[in-house]
Amino acid sequence: MVKTTNFFKILASWIGIIVISFLVHLGLHPFNVPISVHLLIQDSLFVLFIWFVNHKWYHQTFHFQRDLDAKNNVLLLIVVLAYNFYIVRAVLATSSIKHINFGKLFLPALIIAVCAGVAEEFIFRGLIFTYVWDKVTDHHIIPAAVISSLLFGMTHYINLTQQTFSMTTLQVINAFSLGLIFVAIYVRTKNLLLPMFLHFLNDFVAYFSSGGSAVEKLPHLPGIAPSALLKFMFLAIIIKSIIFIIIACVWMRKSKVKW
């Protein structure tokens, strides 16, 4: 009963995040504000909300310790993530990269990436994962990581207000696997700054590769039909996600975690 109650506390908090996002979208949509301003307002409200519910309900500690023994592991993950962020995205953005104004996009990209990296890591790794691990799954790491990462991935369905179901589902799958990687980094290093940084890096590069658009769209590649490209992207995301899931599960083995 207690575990069920604790799980519904987490679910209620997650629904609160969705409601805040929806209300911010409704409130700002008529004013056509830049996406960077939109996310700055939204994620600031997220952090305030999480601070409030943590103070009232959860009483979780956000860890920022430095574990030197994990540096080689973190380096490996950075290499894996860098491949995803730079190589794959660069290939998909090849057709539009020449038209990107990097100077104009730098500040919005910085704001978006900092807001998302800080707010979402506080919510999904710092609070939700830690609480589920401690109060719901009896310190079984992988179930807690799956629950928190599923909620993290599903949160991206709020983007259906701006983009297609297919592209949003790609985001959800990608976010789920990235969420597991971020959990693995957090539990191995006990330092929330590291997943924050990698989350920041992902969103920073993604904003540039999209040409400054917050909406995920199929890239235009000459000679490739959109339906074929979409199937390829689904296959690539699924394969990459499977690899990330395997890496995360190996790194989250109980014998390797020092908490």
Automatic annotation (TrEMBL):
It comes from Philodulcilactobacillus myokoensis. The chain crosses the membrane at residues 7-27, 33-53, 74-93, 105-128, 140-158, 164-185, 192-209, 229-252. It comes from the Bacteria. One of its GO terms (biological process) is CAAX-box protein maturation. Pfam families: Rce1-like. InterPro entries: CAAX_protease (IPR052710), Rce1/LyrA-like_dom (IPR003675). The lineage of its organism: Bacteria, Bacillati, Bacillota, Bacilli, Lactobacillales. This is CAAX prenyl protease 2/Lysostaphin resistance protein A-like domain-containing protein. One of its GO terms (molecular function) is endopeptidase activity. Residues 105-205 form the CAAX prenyl protease 2/Lysostaphin resistance protein A-like domain. Belongs to the UPF0177 family. Keywords: Membrane, Transmembrane, Transmembrane helix.
